[in-house]
Amino acid sequence: MKILIVRFSSIGDIVLTTPVIRCIKTKLSAEVHYVTKSQYKSLLENNPYVDKLFLLRESLSELIHELKIENYDVVIDLHHNLRTRILKWRLGVQSFSFNKLNIEKWLMVNFKINHLPEIHIVDRYFEAVKSLGVKSDALGLDYFIPEIDDMPWEWLPQSHQRGFVAYAIGGQHETKKLPVTRMTELCIKINQPVILLGGQEDFENGERVRLSINGLRSNQEVIFNTCGKLNLNQSASLLKKASVVFSHDTGLMHIAAALKKEVYSIWGNTIPAFGMYPYRTKYHSLENTGLNCRPCSKIGFDKCPKRHFKCMNEMKFDFEIL
């Protein structure tokens, strides 16, 4: 049997499909192909359960032409949008997709009516392959770091070589991220060497946090800002070395879960009840639950619609790292 799995984006969503990949491969002994956007190639090219990887670049038609040659038996659509519907229609083979719960999310965002099932999105993904006889093996997420991207301890400042906490400061939208002043407060509360992780777009915020805290500690480099300096696999290797991980609702949070790290997940305008909290790893949610305006979006905004941003500005950092 030859099976195609479809998930075009993004980092966290793709990582969340990895249990389905593994279970299809191990339980059906199928030939498993996967298609995603070209910028997410590194997430899957080292996955031993993926036999062939296809990449969406610019032309959906060219991609479909490549896929037609493979003569798939089944397509598993774990994205379920307009482009994947076109892809399935053009391939013309049996297909299965998952329930995105768009109506339930809309009711929760707009009217705070909670009809969301208490089920993680990974388990909803498995509903899509239930008729194939594929069930979860309860082993959690996968993430495979190539040896070339394993960052050596010697690369770190001496202050961090005996251990550190990782903090993924990025987020696809501003309302998913703590303001810089609160990031600084959080790092002070952690009170351990911290490595900041994120993309190039997060470097400036990381520098503001680093300079604020390192300036308070003479001759000590408490904060090490790696934002924009590492590729995704290299950042993952530092997550693997961390004692614990703090993260906004972003892709690195799910990579940390795949690496079985203890995660402190930070929630602003989104909520864990949407079903995308850290999967099958020990985690703690940091969120301001006393607001009647949360969630204000299932995705996020560039700025708080209410202009007060209380979900992040008034969040209590009520935790103790053991």
Summarize the structure.
The protein is of the alpha/beta class and 322 residues long. It has helices at 11-15, 18-28, 60-68, 82-91, 102-111, 121-127, 180-190, 203-214, 232-241, 251-258, 310-313, and strands spanning 2-6, 31-37, 52-56, 74-77, 94-97, 165-168, 194-197, 223-225, 245-248, 263-266, 283-286.
Question: Could you describe the 3D structure shown?
Answer:
There is one protein chain. This protein has 322 residues and is α/β, with parallel strands linked by helices. The protein has 11 helices and 11 strands. The strands form 2 sheets. It has a 6-stranded parallel sheet, sandwiched between helices. Strands 3-2-1-4-5 form a 5-stranded parallel sheet, with helices on both faces. Helix 3 packs parallel to helix 4 (82-91) and helix 7 packs across helix 8.
